[in-house]
Records
---
Amino acid sequence: AKRARRQPEAVIVGMMGAGKTRLGKEMSQMLGIAFEDADEQIERRIGMTIPKYFAKHGEPAFRQVEYDVIDETLGSFDGIYALGGGAPMTPAVRERLRNYADRGGRVIYLLADPSEAMDRARRGGGRPMLDGDADARWMALYEQRDPVYRQVANVIVRTHGMTPKAAARKMIEMT
Ligand code: S3P
């Protein structure tokens, strides 16, 4: 499909700890293009950390801000764009991603080894969706979300056992 207007080179979805931000940055450096991260955009907009915002306003308010930044960015930014893990669970975000893919956009499902992603997410902290038993929460979310990521993505990149550089190269080759 021909590109009608500015839109990201690629959008990355996947679980917390999969490496969306890390590998998205790596890809953008290899390609010499811009990188944007939805969680960072959200924190700039709300003026506080995501866990603080969750505690103060709750998840639905967070999902609304998340939708707003994604909606704006999908129509105006042309680099690599990493979304937060929960973003595709919002129907309006899925609708936007479908529209982006219909215009020729690439949506990459970054599929890391579950135990490694879970470890990284737990150790990284700052993730209110993992409050309580972080590993059990991660696994329950993974089971819910994996089919949805597969539904919105048009490329699935499995990075099990790869170095970050090799994984980023594979993501570039496959898009
Ligand atoms: C969330 C994932 C986080 C962040 C927020 C909610 C989720 O992003 O958007 O804590 O619901 O999975 P990462 O996937 O970058 O950790």
---
Amino acid sequence: MNNSKINISKRLNECLSTQIFDLLIKCGEFTERNSASLFLVGGCLRDILLNKRPKDIDLTLVNGDSNLVQNLSEYLGGKIIFKSQFFTYKLKVNNNIIDITEARKEVYSSPGSLPKITSKCSIDDDLYRRDFTINSMALSLNPASLGNIIDPFNGINDINNKNIRIIHDNSFSDDPTRILRAIRYSIRLNFNIDNQTLSKINEFKSNINSITGFRIKNELIKILREDSRSKILLYLDTLKILDIIQPNINLNTKINEIFDNFQFKDEYIDDLILIGILIYNLNIQNIIYFAEKLYLDSIFIKTLRDTNEIKQLLQNVKLDKLKNSSIYKQLYKYKYEAIIINRYFSNENVCQKIDLYLNKLKDTIPPLNGKEIIALGAKPGPIIKEIMDYLLHEKLDGNIKNKDQAKIKATQILNK
Ligand code: CTP
């Protein structure tokens, strides 16, 4: 493949739905009529050149502003659903989402800091602020130049040669998250990291400590959401980068096996579970250190604390030998995700008990409510809750099958 031989409209047709394709053509026509230019850019173009369906549609607008984007969305019969101070817009048109960014230059005041956006600029300047050659190309959507690819850093060549290459030597010092991105892309796409880029990774990897925890968390989550998460993590480990993110993460065969079989479905819950699995072997001090460093939210922290407590519990208590009410008493206070994380590390008998708890015991309700217990003669107060709990445990163990039996048991307690 080289620049001239790509039949780009065939590619676009193959990789995009007809709806999106038509939408992009309309966007290009409208932009040109308004004396501006519009390009398909970044990972979206990379994926199309690799004959893959892109996850997102990313466009860059040159010589246009927020008014033009507003008019464009009205022309398409859609609306802007998000607009940031950094000249980025999210358009929704008939359930299709399109991201548009005004072309911009970025300046990094210190390594790892967020860039300062200095000015609106040409498409070449915009491409120069990007990470790797394969992500620094633009495809024109204007009718006059439709399908022309701007490829200032030979990205097409690197796609052909399966190469991940930075476009300038400061790329990783500007933004050390790119080190994690390079490794993620290399495994995902089965590309090699070019030697010069690899030596820059080694030179700047300690700068990962200068990135905010929030950005490290985002990159880690992107890695964990990939199908090849275990290979990416192993590569990070080999390059001694995992240790920089968090020392003592022990990527043993069990963790790799869990990661290899993990089917990612729900974003937030699965993020919690995957992080919990990754740091399962850390002690509680390191877990808290990790959580604080990455600014994890309180739900994350509760899940990680619970995970560690359940892990200790399962080391001391044989869950598979307990009766139902005892299983309930051991687990009821813990978060669902923390139980699931421990399930991944449990033997078959314990897994069965965890499933029994999650599928049945957890949602069992006491056979009598407070009012019904008061109607039996109980005085309002803590005794009501005690009786309800007792009845619930008896029900879980199969000693109470209906309300009448529950009333008899409750009356016996009240008469004691
Ligand atoms: N980008 C960059 N440096 C970063 C993050 C992003 O230069 N630290 C640029 C790249 O050109 C990238 C584009 O912004 O292609 C969009 O970023 P993102 O959506 O994170 O990546 P994609 O390339 O779309 O890749 P992915 O398939 O991982 O979503």
---
Amino acid sequence: MSHVALITGGMGGLGEAICIKMAALGYKVVTTYSPSNTSAQEWLTKMHHLGYGFIGVPCDVTDYDACKACVAQVEKDVGPVDVLVNNAGITRDITFKKMTKSDWDSVLHTNLDSVFNMTKQVMDGMTARKWGRVINVSSVNGQKGAFGQTNYSAAKAGMHGFTKALALEVAKHGVTVNTISPGYIGTKMVTAIPNEILESKILPQIPVARLGKPEEIAGLVAYLASDEAAFLTGANISINGGQHMY
Ligand code: NDP
């Protein structure tokens, strides 16, 4: 029986590549999407035409009860969740001086509370079955900070502490918990940055001299989800074209 992989935000730039990679490896792939996402059905239909039988479940990852209901539905309709990829995230970039409480809360709730909300629903099952993988998608900006991102950098850095603490608690039960920290990847989150800033400020920071590809992130996620990665836990893996070596 194939493993079930649940990917939050699987319809986004990185998420789609992760869904495709996991499907290619034989996982049953379930993705969450925001209840407000009006193009979700269109995306699922497009993917079905391409041969991917992804299952989409609406779930606001900031809402604990919605996450509980989402995982209960997945377990009933598809099976127990073996791999959880906490990938959903947002930015609300603005300097600290101008940042509102709402800018702070929305980023912390979506990027960090979501990790608790989703992981809480799957962990007892994973430890009982003695196998599980939790992969948290952080960011280079959670490692080194970024101008205009006190909210995002704090949320993404919080994932690292969560990962290490939980990895300690569940290691002996066959469950690994890891974080990956991508640098700049060519998804809409990054291509929304004005071109002149991309070319003058961002690309010069990247020794590989290009943006990363979503498929490169998906390959790392797939490795962390594999049996071969059973001895790798509590880690944060940088994947950033050499931008930040830490
Ligand atoms: P996208 O904006 O393309 O995708 C983000 C996804 O998050 C969307 O699918 C969105 O779902 C989902 N999402 C946002 N809010 C909610 C919510 N409240 N409930 C459920 N789902 C939600 O971004 P990327 O693919 O670029 O980013 C994916 C992850 O990678 C993020 O965590 C991001 O911080 C991180 N990252 C990205 C980098 C990059 O260069 N792109 C670099 C480093 C880290 P929906 O569309 O249905 O609203």
---
Amino acid sequence: ELAYYAGEFRDINEAVIPIDERGHQFGDGVYEFIRVYKGVPFSIERHLDRLERSAKAIFIELPVSRQELKDIIHQAMEKSTLKDADIYIQVTRGIAPRNHLFPDVPAQLALTIRHPRQTPEEAYEKGIFTLLLEDERWANCYIKSLNLLPNLLAKQAAASKGCKEAILVKDGYITEGSSSNVFAIKDNVLFTTPATRKILSGITRANVLECAQEQAIQIREQNMTPSFLKDADEVFITSTSVGLLPVSKIDEVELPTFRPVTVALKHAYSLRTAGTKAYQ
Ligand code: PMP
């Protein structure tokens, strides 16, 4: 496990962030989270596309080119010797005396590479409990911003009630999970919230939608109400770290345990992560 900051690879526990780093003081930055499967950073182009979009949306100029960033990622993989890994990439507006106005300084890139966080097999078999909560976030959730406080509060509130994920509801409709996207299956049709400014357009979401297309599963990117979700045949969440994870309970409502569409899509997704070149 190791870190990269200020142009150098470092021990992951080294103290390197100056007190006036805007990521540290304001959460003034954006990030990405990439999973490496068997030496291949999965869907790296999509993640780097999204990093560029997020940075642009908050007027941060990336301090390295795309090729330079890829080189740093590959060096991190080599130096760590990890074949399966979690890579966290963060870009902040830089280091300058504390002031809300943007400083005229270069952006700062930070990266860590670690052993992948594993989800217990039991969660994939049994599904997870989830809690519906009000989505208290801002209007630009399509930006993968460092400001995650509402997401943390929601996840913690869910955990305090024995739930693994908070499913967020805004203006009467499901937006997404605190760190995942939400899908439902009803009468063999796959539903998911449309990728507007109100949600993060998940890379796993995009891959799962392509898997569904390949299997000729009907797709509707459409807003879902809480009662629609509770009445669904199957519900699952997606993210880079968990892949597809079935939901067995929403609030007090138990969902059916027979999940044929989820199983088929999870299988198709695992074939992608196992590394057919066409999907990298
Ligand atoms: N929504 C939110 C709010 C998230 O934090 C995440 C995880 N990064 C996702 C969705 C899933 O995105 P991805 O599939 O790209 O990991």
